[in-house]
Structure formats: structure tokens, C-alpha cells
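Extended Data, panel c. Modelled sequence:
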Amino acid sequence: MPALYFLIVLALLAGAVLPTQTALNNKLAVTVDNPILAALLSFIVGTLTLAIYSVATGVPLGNIAAAKNAPPAAWLGGVLGAFFVASTVILLPRLGVAMTFGLVVAGQMLITLFYDHFGLLGLDVKPMNFGRVIGVLLVIGGVILIRRF
């Protein structure tokens, strides 16, 4: 069970990093006067960070060659990541951090119901049920409360 707790803490930290990253990227966007350029610079720094980490920890870089065998759809992850970062940098100054990420989480929860229910993208099937739908509706209700107050 301790491994599960570590994973829960890791997931919470990953969630906490997203609005922090967006706020910092927004500062960069203000500095360079362009949210897309700020997102590009963020990805450059992230790429360099991952390269340094990979070399420092001995990640077998030879496996990169196997990427040529990945299905075409697998490459869309980078496109979606760029869309996410650029979108949140554009949204944050207009909607605020809480509203931006409330909507992001609501969008995530809505789509995950369908990914799980239909086993999309090769994932295990976890049928949609009343409890899961209510959970998503509660998240959406939270977004409405954030917007209202």
C-alpha cells in the first residue's frame, strides 16, 4: 500500500505543477509579448531538461530508434501537449487560474468517462456508471461555483 500512497502524492504534485507552469509561462508570455512564443520556449527548456535527466540517469537512448515503429497517432501526443500549454497560457490571464484549471479538469473528467467506457486508445474498459457520472457532474458544479463566486 505505501507504493499507492506515493503514486497518489505524485499525481497530486503533477496536478499542482500544471497551474504553476501556466502562471510561469504567462510571465514569459508577457516578457516576450506572445503566448505561442512563450509555449515554444517552455517546450525547449522542457526538452533540454528531459535530455539532461535521461543522460544523467542512464536512460537507454538507443530506444529512441524504436520510435519509428510507433503508430502515427502516437505522435499526436506532442501536438496535444503544445495545444494544452499554448491554450492555458492564453486562457490564464483572461479567465484566472482557478477558472482555467477548473475547466481543464472538467474537460479531462468528461473525456475520461468515454476513454474508460469504450476502451479508447487501447485502454482497459471501465464501464460508465451512475457514480462516475455524478463525480464528473460534481466537478462541473465546482467550475460553476468558481465562475459564480
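The chain is about 75% helix and 0% strand. This feature is highlighted in the accompanying rendering.
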